[in-house]
């Protein structure tokens, strides 16, 4: 997946680092020469340019991007970048940073924004979640203890599709806290069944994340063989 990030400050570099760790292609764009610190994120592409200018976005080949993240410290810039990415280049997913909470009402579809958020980790997680059915996405790391809030969208072919929550042998140190099904938010009971497309939120020990992902993503034919 190719991701362009407007704004190469601390927030933009933090997002870029996480996405690169997950195997994505990242381009950082900033108009300030002092912000171009290739040595800090050497695996990323870098472009010294104004992300509010069409010529700059042409040079960045925004039409090839799956996601654009407007991560500058200026809400006006983030809105312009979002609008251009969506309307001029048809970018499927636009994520924008909100710096001033008073401006949050502006960050909507009218300005080309699909998701408006304010923390680097949540921004990168939302990008991952948009394209990663069947993959575990870490949404939040708790500051105390070795536990994370993680999300997985249950694939159509999962062996657990149709299984009741109470019949699943969950890994130790994991807890299913919420099922998001369409517009509904469900507090899971033992009798609730898991359905393809469900967004499952867990609090899980980091050491159990791989085991949890394997359990939820295993294909039906794999269990039958």
From TrEMBL:
Span of domain RCK N-terminal: 1-117
One cellular-component annotation, GO: plasma membrane
GO molecular function: potassium ion transmembrane transporter activity
Pfam families in the record: TrkA_C, TrkA_N
Keywords: Ion transport, NAD, Potassium, Potassium transport, Transport
UniProt KW Ion transport keyword: yes
Superkingdom of source: Bacteria
Boundaries of every RCK C-terminal domain copy: 137-218
The protein, known as: Trk system potassium uptake protein TrkA
């Amino acid at each position: 997946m190719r991701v362009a990030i407007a704004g190469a400050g601390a927030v933009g570099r933090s997002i870029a680092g996480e996405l690169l760790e997950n195997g994505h292609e990242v381009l950082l764009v900033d108009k300030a020469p002092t912000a171009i610190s290739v040595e800090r994120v050497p695996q990323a592409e870098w472009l010294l340019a104004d992300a509010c200018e069409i010529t700059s976005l042409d040079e960045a080949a925004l039409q090839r991007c799956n996601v654009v993240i407007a991560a500058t410290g200026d809400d006006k810039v983030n809105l312009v970048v979002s609008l251009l990415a969506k309307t001029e280049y048809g970018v499927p997913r636009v994520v924008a940073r909100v710096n001033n909470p008073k401006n949050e009402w502006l960050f909507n579809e009218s300005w080309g924004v699909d998701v408006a958020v304010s923390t680097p980790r949540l921004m990168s997680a939302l990008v991952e979640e948009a394209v990663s059915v069947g993959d575990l996405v870490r949404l939040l790391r708790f500051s105390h203890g070795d536990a994370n809030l993680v999300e997985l969208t249950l694939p159509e072919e999962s062996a657990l599709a149709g299984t009741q929550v109470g019949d699943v042998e969950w890994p130790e140190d994991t807890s299913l806290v919420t099922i998001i099904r369409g517009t509904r938010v469900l507090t899971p009971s033992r009798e609730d069944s898991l359905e393809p497309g469900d967004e499952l939120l867990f609090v899980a020990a980091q050491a159990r994340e791989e085991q949890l992902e394997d359990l939820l993503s295993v294909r039906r034919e794999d269990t039958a063989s």
